[in-house]
Amino acid sequence: MMTLSQADMNERLQDYGKRIESLGKSLGLDYYPVDFELVPNNFMNEVAIYGLPIRMPHWSFGVRYIHQLIRQSMGHSRIFEVMFPGNPCHGYLVNSNTLAENTLVTAHVLGHADFAKNNHLFARFAEMSGTNIVEHAAAQAHRIEQAVKNYGQQRVEALLDAALALEPHVDLDQELHRPLYPTGPKPAEHGPRAGDDPFNDRFRHLPGEAGPAQASKERRSAPIPPRPESDLLWFIAHYGPELEDWERDVFLAVRHESFYFYPVFACNIMNEGWATYWHARLLREADFLPEDLYLDAVTCHSNVVRPFAGEQQAALAINPYHVGFSMWERIVEKQGMERARAIRRDEDDFGFIRNFLDAELAEKLGLFVYETQSDDGVKVIARDVNKVREAILAPKFNYGAPCIQVGEMKTDGTLVLVHDHTADGRGLDLERAARVLQYVHRAWRRPVMLQTIDSRGSPHELRSGTQ
After folding, report:
1. What is the pTM of this model?
2. Domain annotation covers residue 79
3. CA-closest candidate to residue 259, choices 237, 225, 227, 233
4. Is residue 338 part of a domain?
5. How many angstroms separate the CA atoms of 443 and 161, rounded?
6. Would residue 165 count as lying in a domain?
7. Domains contained in the chain, number
8. Is residue 240 pLDDT above 70, yes or no?
């Protein structure tokens, strides 16, 4: 078999890519333009770990990078592509991949691009966060570098410690650009307001009556927050008593990026499955591909959709490519492509798994619920499809983070955080929670307390910044 030079491979990849795009559009794929770029493996690792091609610098990304390198050295993780939705989309391919692998990845990225443009959740968050997140993140990274020059590495890093520790703690039911709380007096909850009833208005002002006290109560400002607040990044950015403007901007920038990333998180199984379905179909129908390249690409596809790695006979975590691809294949086969496109448009992983992973398919895929034993072994505890569904979805609730809310901001500036463990269904790792509380205190600069329970359900109150 003839060995191709890198230039020849790139030229052929560009040709195959254009023809695959033409084929995809003829089959109904609809997406914003995709800018493809071939990059070295180390750059691909950085892009995957940072989540964006350029992002604000922080030590935690370096830790993740080292972890990724270790996983790769052990054969547990290989990154074939990274794709960023937007207009245009950005698709990165590893230049050391084979021609067959990058041909498959090109088709895979087109599936992602179609999903991102046409899924309602992606569309909603794109409307709020914009379609130029790569440029936004680059500008923010530049501002962070300028802040380091102006205020010092230690101060900027301490602020980023807090902001990135709270990255998933946003209220996704709110708008990205939401107004502040009302600043007017809190209205009376019962009875007519002053001026509504002349008799009652005069009665409240009679000597000896409780009129002045009542009027004082009505003039009292609404508490902050007026109700439990789940968007910790937004609250600290706007109500942190001693934050400077540049510090507030950092919190809001992290929040902006968190909104951008949420659809990718919430649609992971659907999105990867859809892209995998389409790369398989496009390769199958691309009669212009040489037979040897097609066979190599099919082998790559088989490795991508394996339910477990290496020589293992079972897996303790699902492969989203495997589960998603199997579900989409079944939906298209039984309900047709138009129905599949409607599901792609309307659902996220919660609706997708609950509505379309049935008992027959769960059994076919060998899915089960397990628990760990004291001897580090595992025990299968359920194969019931309802329990399987909820076990798959459990890590996705509340952006994968504990449900923490701002309960109160006291008059001295003390911040009271409350862990809603009833909605969360779990306790906290107290050591980790105390560390995050320290980060928050450095930014808030007033006492911070957290009311929670531990892993056994016992109540605890953690404090930071108090004597």
Report:
1. 0.84
2. no
3. 233
4. no
5. 9
6. yes
7. 1
8. yes
